[in-house]
Amino acid sequence: MKKLALILTLLASCSTWAQGDIEAGKQKSATCAACHGQEGNSTLTQYPNIAGQHAGYLEKQLKEFKLGMETQGKQGRLEPVMSGMAMPLTEQDIMDLSAYFASLPMADNTTPEEVVPEGKALYLAGDMERGITACVACHGPRGNGTSLSGFPKISGQHADYVKAQLEKFRSADRANDMNAMMRDIAKKLTDEDIDTLSKYVGGLH
Question: What are the residue boundaries of the Cytochrome c domain, all occurrences included (predicted)?
Fold first, then answer.
């Protein structure tokens, strides 16, 4: 019993150690502000808002940016700027930064009225004839995703950034999606589909 109690204590301690520190993350976030804004909401629409994003998702992306640089794009996610920024980060740095940005509120965004009918139909129902799965299945009705499943929050995101990522998934230039799900869906999307969905998800909140 004593051994069991010791093991359980150690496991509990490891669980505590494995958590990111929000305050430490704030102190480490200064270099992130140039692209992602002071509190994770970028004014440059080609960069994502990372405030309010799931910590687990942020951790995954940072680790894969680093892996992309280490393997020269053979694994992970290679982006010239972010891969370079991620290279010197330790595991603790990644957890701290992810915890910090996840704790912040994502800025509100809007959906242009003209894309609502087509965007809503494609987001909620997909297109069975073309084999396009509904976005709502993974990202939820309000675009909040799910932390446990690893699906990111896309509500409130910049249309320019979403469009760029859908195009990269479609061309397979980005290939770090789980089970190639996003690549399978994106390759069936037209340019018009991508433009519509990119604008639609901003105001889902």
Answer: 20-105, 114-205
Question: What sections of the chain are H helices per DSSP?
Answer: 2-17, 22-28, 33-36, 55-70, 80-86, 91-102, 116-125, 136-139, 159-171, 181-186, 191-200
Query: Does 82 count as an annotated binding residue?
Result: yes
Fold of 42-103: Cytochrome Bc1 Complex; Chain D, domain 2 (1.10.760)
Known binding residue 135? Answer is yes
> Does 139 count as an annotated binding residue?
yes
> Mind listing the pLDDT tens digit for each residue in 114-136?
999 999 999 999 999 999 999 99
Q: What is the pTM of this model?
A: 0.89
- Residue 54 marked in a binding site: no
Q: Is 36 annotated as a binding residue?
A: yes
Q: Which CATH number fits domain 115-203: 3.40.50.200, 1.10.10.10, 1.10.760.10, 3.30.1490.190?
A: 1.10.760.10
